[in-house]
DNA sequence: AGGACAACGGTCT
DNA sequence: AGACCGTTGTCCT
């Protein structure tokens, strides 16, 4: 996955998904954010926070096309995100969890070469900017319980169930 | 099965 | 420097 470096402008828009409406931020280089929200204002606040230094241009038509591609087809979507080196490592590790299976926070910590940084892995996963595409929902606690989810545990469960069927 | 708790490491203020 | 966290292992009841 690519690192988003200094750009002045990105596209964003709202679009329907099987899990409710999402807000998505994107460019030629790939998806920079995909978030769920209670209402559009909350989404905008969230995104302005993440991209405080970048101008966001609304383009819902493009956003809908992109989401169709993401959730209908199984084509791989390019990613272009911003994060610390540690976070990038963690997110890359998440992308290696196969569809339909799960991993634990401890396993991810192991994978990024910092077996004791479990707690930090948790926060890094929580900072994931791109729901679904970076499959942070596939990470559970070591004891098998759900752990947390930034956009609500209910959504985490829905995503896991949908993947089970594929 | 479930609660309390210390230790852990990255990130934010 | 201190606090916050999508955790974990251990030690309880």
Show the helix and strand layout.
Elements: E1 2-3, E2 9-15, E3 22-27, E4 30-36, H1 40-50, E5 55-58, H2 60-71, E6 80-81, H3 85-95, E7 103-104, H4 105-111, H5 118-126, E8 139-140, H6 153-165
Parallel strand pairs: 1-6, 2-5, 7-8
Antiparallel strand pairs: 2-3, 3-4
Helix pairs in contact: 4-5
This protein binds a DNA duplex (13 and 13 nucleotides) through α4 and α5.
The CATH homologous superfamily of the largest domain is termed Winged helix-like DNA-binding domain superfamily/Winged helix DNA-binding domain
Helices, by number, come to 6
What Rg do the Cα atoms give?
Answer: 15 Å
Query: Order of SSEs, N→C?
Result: EEEEHEHEHEHHEH
Beta-strand fraction estimate: 15-25%
Helix content, binned percent: 25-40%
Cα distance, first to last residue? 24 Å
Structural class: alpha/beta
User: What is the number of independent domains?
Assistant: 2
The first-level CATH class of the largest domain is given as Mainly Alpha
Q: Runs with pLDDT <50, length 5+? A: none
Counted beta strands: 8
Mean pLDDT level: 96
Largest sheet report: 4 strands, mixed
User: Strand order within the widest sheet?
Assistant: 4-3-2-5
Shape: globular
* CATH level-two architecture of the largest domain: Orthogonal Bundle
Find the CATH topology of the largest domain: Arc Repressor Mutant, subunit A
Q: What is the multimeric organization of the chains shown? A: single chain
């Amino acid at each position: 996955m690519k690192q988003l470096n200094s750009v002045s402008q990105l596209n964003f828009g709202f679009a329907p998904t099987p899990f409710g409406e999402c807000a998505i931020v994107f460019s030629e280089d790939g998806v920079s954010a995909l978030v769920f929200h209670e209402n559009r204002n909350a989404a905008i606040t969230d995104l302005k926070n993440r991209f405080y230094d970048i101008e966001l241009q609304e383009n819902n038509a493009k956003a809908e096309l992109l989401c169709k591609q993401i959730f209908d087809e199984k084509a791989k979507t390019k990613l272009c995100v911003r994060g610390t080196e540690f976070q990038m490592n963690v997110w890359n590790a998440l992308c290696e969890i196969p569809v339909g299976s799960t991993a634990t926070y401890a396993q991810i910590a192991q994978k990024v070469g910092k077996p004791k940084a479990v707690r930090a892995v948790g926060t890094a996963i929580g900072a994931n900017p791109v729901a679904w595409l970076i499959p942070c929902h596939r990470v559970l606690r070591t004891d098998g319980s759900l752990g947390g989810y930034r956009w609500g545990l209910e959504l985490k469960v829905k995503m896991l169930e949908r993947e089970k069927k594929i």
